[in-house]
From TrEMBL:
<dbReference type="GO" id="GO:0004619">
    <property type="term" value="F:phosphoglycerate mutase activity"/>
</dbReference>
<dbReference type="Pfam" id="PF01663">
    <property type="entry name" value="Phosphodiest"/>
</dbReference>
<dbReference type="GO" id="GO:0016787">
    <property type="term" value="F:hydrolase activity"/>
</dbReference>
<dbReference type="InterPro" id="IPR017850">
    <property type="entry name" value="Alkaline_phosphatase_core_sf"/>
</dbReference>
<feature type="region of interest" description="Disordered">
    <location>
        <begin position="338"/>
        <end position="357"/>
    </location>
</feature>
<dbReference type="InterPro" id="IPR002591">
    <property type="entry name" value="Phosphodiest/P_Trfase"/>
</dbReference>
<protein>
    <submittedName>
        <fullName>2,3-bisphosphoglycerate-independent phosphoglycerate mutase</fullName>
        <ecNumber>5.4.2.12</ecNumber>
    </submittedName>
</protein>
<keyword id="KW-0413">Isomerase</keyword>
């Protein structure tokens, strides 16, 4: 009877042991064979405790190394890929060399600021979130959002992180006043309308030092100003890109100096490019944006070949922080940029990308 019960337990535990630790199972079988029957039940109890203990070890060992605890997104308004290539940008160059990047990520149409900042943080396009132009206000819109979250707007990554990590710190520092209306301020600890790019960086790094946020968003507006004033690609524009690079370096340096290089991801991207002294139209110069990720759980030295859309940024942020994405989002994590530990079984690409000329 005892032997029949023991053999059933062997069957039941074999599948568990397959997943966990063969050596413990083998040890148990050895003991069962060698010991007198009267010791088998106590032996089983001892081995069961060892199995449970080993399953704990396996679970701990399976935790991804270098998981991100903090994500910083730096959005540089109007930063076109050709702006980076024509400027001296040692900080961005380093992030590309040590991270995963593409200079062919896509904004959404229209290539206006509100539509694109919204898409970046809302994991979806204007068709879903309804922010179709800079004229949009919470009480003035042409298309209603398909889903209303808190504060009556389409859910952003800020409310998603608040929901998934209720005690985490979340901060938003924006240099363009209009950015504030796109964010559920009640989901954030601090939303600051900064006074210029240097102030935005100074105040966001202060927040980093004092609160160690899970999610920090920094918006810089001065590159877009230079584009509108003197033209995209003009000497002033290039100078503005170089200032952005120095400010980005300031953020990366703070991350490193505070000992968070191993658990932080920095993403640098833009809302749109530009042509002549404007944007909003449908040219490649306006719709192509840089997308650079660097840090914990990000592959190094990878030039991304698969398509990246601005609304994939929010989905990537949530994946990095292990927070579930709202079901209404259409963006997907940029898995090509992620190390194996941040990949999911659901990420299998349906097909190889098709080159477009
Ligand atoms: Zn813009």
């Amino acid at each position: 009877m005892l032997s029949a019960w023991a053999s059933w337990r062997v069957c039941e535990h074999r599948s568990v042991a397959n997943r966990m630790n063969y050596s413990v199972l083998e040890l148990w079988i050895l003991l069962m064979r060698s010991e007198p029957r009267c010791y088998q039940l106590p032996t089983f109890c001892v081995v069961l405790v060892m199995l449970l203990a080993s399953s704990g070890q396996v679970a701990r060992a399976a935790e991804p190394e270098g998981a991100a605890k903090h994500v910083i997104v730096i959005g540089v308004d109007g930063l076109a890929p050709f702006g980076i290539s024509s400027a001296n940008t040692p900080a961005l160059d380093r992030l590309c060399e040590q991270g995963a990047s593409t200079m062919h990520a896509r904004a959404v149409m229209p290539t206006s600021s509100s539509s694109n900042w919204a898409s970046m943080i809302m994991g979806a396009g204007p068709e879903q979130h309804g922010i179709t132009s800079n004229e949009w206000e919470r009480n003035r819109f042409e298309i209603a959002p398909v889903v209303k979250g808190s504060e009556g707007i389409y859910p952003t990554m800020f409310s998603a992180v608040r929901k998934g990590l209720p005690t985490s710190a979340i901060g938003v520092f924006h240099d363009w006043g209009g950015f504030g209306r796109l964010v559920e301020s009640e989901s954030c600890d601090l939303v600051v309308d900064a006074d210029g790019p240097v102030d935005a960086i100074d105040r966001s790094t202060e927040f980093w030092n004092s609160r160690n946020p899970s999610l920090l968003f920094i918006h810089l507006d001065h590159v877009d100003h230079a584009g509108h004033a003197e033209g995209w690609g003009s000497p002033d524009y290039v100078q503005a890109v170089q200032l952005a690079d120095r400010l980005i370096n300031q953020v990366v340096t703070v991350v490193e100096k505070t000992g968070h290089k191993s658990d932080t991801v920095v993403i640098v991207t833009s809302d749109h490019g530009g042509v002549d002294k404007g944007h909003g139209g449908s040219t490649m110069a306006e719709i192509e944006i840089p997308w650079i990720a660097w840090g914990a759980g990000i592959r190094t030295g990878v030039e991304l070949k698969k398509p990246v859309n601005t609304y994939d940024t929010a989905a990537t942020v949530l994946r990095l922080l292990d927070v579930p994405a709202p079901a209404c989002w259409v963006g997907r994590p940029v898995t090509e940029a992620l190390s194996q530990s941040k990949q999911s079984e659901d990420d299998a690409a349906p097909s190889e990308p098709v080159a477009v000329e």
